[in-house]
What does this fold into?
Amino acid sequence: MSPAPFHSGWFETARHCLALGDPEAKCAAVHAAWAECQSEEWIFDDDSPPAPVAAPGRPSRPELVEPSALPRRRLGSDEGRAALVHAVAHIEFNAINLALDAVYRFRGMPPGYYQDWFSVAADEARHFAMLARRLEDLGHAYGDFPAHNGLWEMAEKTAGSCLERMALVPRVLEARGLDVTPGMMQRLQNAGDQETVEVLRVILAEEVRHVEIGTRWFRHCCHQAGLDPEETFFSLLKRHYGSSIRGPFNLEARYEAGFTEREMTWLDQA
It folds into this structure.
């Protein structure tokens, strides 16, 4: 495994972790970086601009395909449940990279911003490990099923703006996880897979904080730019999604994650 280059600064450490392709090595480096982050006063790197966004380190598998090419996951069999667990594991692996890129790419933010996103990377690494173990229980490993690249594609689209990244990744893509996970848990419960339900229960509870972090830093960026957060969020959604975001919404989780009643009314009526 390749350890994180400690004492070299926030950005270089995030870049190092981001570039690691082996999932086990990436998770170990992220956990080591977060432990160091909490125990020492880190330094900021120099002000050189970040490298252009590129594909993060990832293993050669899974094969990346268009979302429409992914088979429907039927939960009545171990194979179907494994495919669902694999899909969530892939989301969590991408979420590690997204959190690391949020640290590396956006300069000039308060120290708390970088600490928040390193903490998110550590949570996502732990979630990925939990799902990888569950996949092993089901006779599979990460990479055994095809997956899509939608999360990272949004990272590429928002690489030029921290404000847009905070709006469209945590508050749209990750917030959808708050909406759909309870339904997945119920389907798995009905299929008798209590072990996976318990893993998803942990992930759902912790993802609320991740979305709240995105909400908080989105509003910070809006205030810095003299923009109204609600109107800016609506504008970005219309530009990137039109009216394609549909409920039902997990209102309790979204309110806990910082969504306002006006935002949820707008989403429900869009």
